[in-house]
TrEMBL record, chain A:
Location of the protein in the cell: Membrane
CC annotations in GO: proton-transporting V-type ATPase, V0 domain; vacuolar proton-transporting V-type ATPase complex
Organism lineage: Archaea, Methanobacteriati, Methanobacteriota, Stenosarchaea group, Methanomicrobia
Record-given protein name: A-type ATP synthase subunit I
Record carries keyword Coiled coil: yes
Job description of the protein: Component of the A-type ATP synthase that produces ATP from ADP in the presence of a proton gradient across the membrane.
Keyword annotations from UniProtKB, A to Z: Coiled coil, Ion transport, Membrane, Transmembrane, Transmembrane helix, Transport
Species name: Methanolobus mangrovi
Membrane topology according to the record: Multi-pass membrane protein
UniProtKB/TrEMBL annotation, chain B:
InterPro entries attached to this UniProt entry: ATPase_proteolipid_c-like_dom, ATPase_proteolipid_csu, F/V-ATP_Csub_sf
A GO CC term assigned to this protein in UniProt: proton-transporting V-type ATPase, V0 domain
Keywords assigned by UniProt, alphabetized: Ion transport, Membrane, Transmembrane, Transmembrane helix, Transport
Residue ranges the record marks as coiled coil: none
Domain of life (superkingdom): Archaea
UniProt organism field: Methanolobus mangrovi
Topological type in the membrane: Multi-pass membrane protein
Segments forming domain V-ATPase proteolipid subunit C-like: 17-76
Name assigned to this protein: V-type ATP synthase subunit K
Amino acid sequence: MLEPKQMSRAVIVGHKSIFEETVDALHKANLFQIEDFNEDESGLRIGRPFENVDEVSKKLIKIRSIASLLGVKDVVSKKQDKKSVLSALDDTLNKLDAELDVKAEQKSKLEAELKEIDSLKKELIPFANISLDFDLYHGYEHLSVFSGYVKEDVGAAVSRITSSYEIFYDAKESTMVLFVTKDKAAEVADLLAGFAFRELRIPNISGMPSESLSRITSKESGLLKQVEAIDAEIESLKDKYAEFILASNEVLSIEAQKSETPLKVATSDSTFIIDGWVPEEDYAELERIVKAATNGRAFVSKQEMTKKDQKIVPIEYNNSKMTAPFQEIMDLYARPTYKELDPTALLFISFPLFYGMILGDIGYALILLAMAIGIKKAISSDAIKPLMNILIYCQISTLIFGVLYGEFLGFPLASLHTEHGVTEGLIKGFETVNLLASPVGDEMITFPVHRTHLVMTMIIATALVGFIHINIGYLLGFINENRKHGISAAIFEKGSWFVIEIGLILAILGYAAVLPSVTTILGVVVFLIGLVMLLKGEGIKGPIELPSLLSNSLSYTRIIAVGLSSIYIASTVNLIAFEMIWEPGTPIGGTTIFAIIVFLLGHGLNTALSIIAPGLHSLRLQYVEFFGKFYEGGGRKYDPFGYIRKYTEE
Amino acid sequence: MVTETITAMDPSGLKAIGAGIAVGLTGLASALAERDIGSAAIGAMAENESLFGKGLILTVIPETIVIFGLVVALLIK
């Protein structure tokens, strides 16, 4: 449970005539991770892809481009038979491709037209309010036409140059059309330059501008409707063919993967050698499958694992179904290496434990539990499921601590005795029970534990929890070091920490007069012995890390600190809603509704924070404080040759 | 005649100020550290999305500073 799966290095050798059968069988079995072959002095060569590779990859590219064009997404669908998919593949693919081509062509044609209309519209709009037929703008022998933007009405200024002119001016668009005789054209042009005249192109159409505008606008909306219709048709194509596309993509991907396998394998003129990894427990199964597929003509053999192999062996977790979701958290950090302990099972306990200790509220636990179960039911994604499982475990732990703390959405469930008197809890008549006097801070340990009134005790308690957690880490480090470098390295590198801790504890207990004062001296001696051991084990780096013993333990006080901040947010929301806005017992009115809104929004916000803050801090305690003591990681993921079929079956 | 007025400070007020300073300054310190880590983490994630987990954890690391501040504030109370 605390170790990754044992792996075996296996080599499969056979004649080339059974190459395809062997690859086929291996792919189906999905057990064997093929180790890429690098050409060396041995005279073996990398194999050639199987014959159908060109055709398959051509079709695959087509399918994938169609899929991305249509935006086909993963859907849950009935598995289709591989043979029927393959037999229908060519025809359906060609048909679909042709249909899509037609649609795409129609669409691009329409879009080109739309673009044209759009630019015409832009030219037309400035003239929209000038009721002058576009035919009248040109074709004169003795007249010059100026049309364009101008700062202001230039009629008065032009009349000073010549009396024979005609002007149309639209103040709204600042557009002007001016007709003058040719002999005065140069003078008028000079004048217009003073008015910031900018010439506009006259649209190459005839008719009144406003009429033309409304005509092309209606044409544009017609075209847009056609584009929409084509989009809808493409969408219906997507619905119709989505299953086919997904299934054939899968079948073709598998074929392509198989056809390219020889590129990873060593071959000679007539033989092939497939080298790779298989979990120890599946070795017999692998042997059986290969033998069965080739009538015993391929030879499978187990190889001795060398020191060099141990660095490259792929790692497969070996966890029960219950603890498996926490592999996601491990992967987020790094996979363990082959000789290392796999702490997934420990995370299964400590991660929800810390999460629950931080949040510890019945109300939030129930909300988040319902949410996690709902999301798990609604979304079938493989990436989401383990995360939701982790969340569910965390909420169970939160529920337990919620009962222990007696909290519901920031309200204390039990009554609260303080020096200012007794405050009734949410459950009437639920009295707080005094258990025993806390050794620190003049506090009384009670059930339920009122965190807000037991701050000192809780700080010490959480630091102690941290101390234990860290020591479990050192213990694991000891085991790891023993496996990697032997017992003496383990004692000096990790064991020395225990000696130092024992020394410190003895010294403190002696100093505090719990034990006779001789123990102080004894403690110091033990501490110094530990320090020397640490120096030998880790060199100068060891003593530098010594203060981290304290800071790491204190880091666990975040369990109470983050927890308190969440309580304070919740109780502030409650205070605002139920005491400042609406006093319970007063008549229900508009303020009640406002109070309810504040209550819901506030707790909604705090619920979101309740996933992020305890989750991240619990995670951080694992990664930084705990893993820092023993974990290196960096293992390679076990990725067997094969494919998990989602849409098709053999 | 010269009179001397004695102004007594309420100790609980001073405690509150102390607690406020503890949380406020450590909060600022965490924020400064997290700003740099956060932007670097986002940069790294843009290059390689699988670094999300590590980036997230690195971003939380300086939170210890403000947590200690919070603990000190709780102790002052």
